[in-house]
């Protein structure tokens, strides 16, 4: 979702930050999400949920309104190709 949203909304401040390595925690920092209990099931799930909440308004603005739309934009292979821009790295 991040790559898809970044491509469609490059003016958003979180998408303008230099992120050398895409990970849950670098995205959390870009979206001002505090991280506690990193690398625990509950801590990571909480950060993921907070990140998804930050994405919701951006997804709605882009016309993503239901699960079918999310599945369409969430193709991991296609997103990996989008995120692997020159000099970029992706970690799933």
Plain-language structure description:
This protein has 92 residues and is mostly helical. The chain contains six helices and no strands. α3 (24-30) packs across α4 (41-61).
Give the topology, please:
Elements (H helix, E strand, L loop, with lengths): L1 H7 L4 H4 L7 H7 L10 H21 L5 H7 L2 H8 L9
Helix pairs in contact: 3-4
Quickly describe the structure.
By secondary structure, the chain is mainly alpha-helical.
Q: How would you classify the helix and strand content by structural class?
A: mainly alpha
Low-confidence stretches: none
Largest beta-sheet characterization: none
| Terminal residue distance | 12 Å
Please give a handful of descriptors for the protein shown.
mainly alpha; 59% helix; 92 residues; globular; single chain
